[in-house]
């Protein structure tokens, strides 16, 4: 009866080390804070001018624009490390 060949096992190779977290892009924090502050200023301006400004003619939609700016700023916080 023939003998089977023995398999040579390779030497133990440890798994590669995981790289650390990537740094934030330089633009992320200023844009994030800028959008949140701009949204806040937009909403305050809308209330102080009784919905006539910052964009005349769209009325209460100025509030929606302000909230969209704030929500966009908060959504950028998910990318912040």
UniProtKB/TrEMBL annotation:
Which residues lie in Pro residues bias regions? 12-23
The compartments listed are: Cell membrane
Question: Cell membrane as a keyword?
Answer: yes
Give the residue spans that cross the bilayer.
Answer: 27-48, 60-78
Query: Which InterPro entries does UniProt cross-reference here?
Result: CrgA
Key words, A-Z: Cell cycle, Cell division, Cell membrane, Membrane, Transmembrane, Transmembrane helix
The annotated regions of Basic residues compositional bias extend over 1-10
Annotated region Disordered: the residues are 1-23
Swiss-Prot/TrEMBL GO biological process terms? cell division
The primary location reported for this protein is: membrane
Pfam family of this protein, just one?
CrgA
Q: Does the keyword Transmembrane helix apply?
A: yes
Q: Which GO terms describe its cellular component?
A: plasma membrane
The annotated topology with respect to the bilayer is: Multi-pass membrane protein
Identify its protein family.
Answer: Belongs to the CrgA family.
Relate the protein's function as given in its record.
Involved in cell division.
Q: Which HAMAP family match?
A: CrgA
What name does UniProt use for this protein? Cell division protein CrgA
> Could you tell me which species this protein originates from?
Cellulomonas fimi
């Amino acid at each position: 009866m023939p003998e089977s060949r023995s398999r040579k096992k390779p030497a133990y190779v440890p798994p590669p080390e995981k790289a650390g977290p990537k740094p934030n892009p330089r633009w992320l924090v200023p844009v994030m804070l800028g959008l949140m502050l701009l949204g806040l200023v937009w909403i305050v301006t809308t209330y102080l001018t009784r919905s006539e400004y910052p964009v005349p003619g769209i009325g209460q939609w100025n509030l929606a624009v302000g909230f969209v700016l704030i929500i966009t700023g908060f959504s950028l916080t998910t990318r912040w490390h």
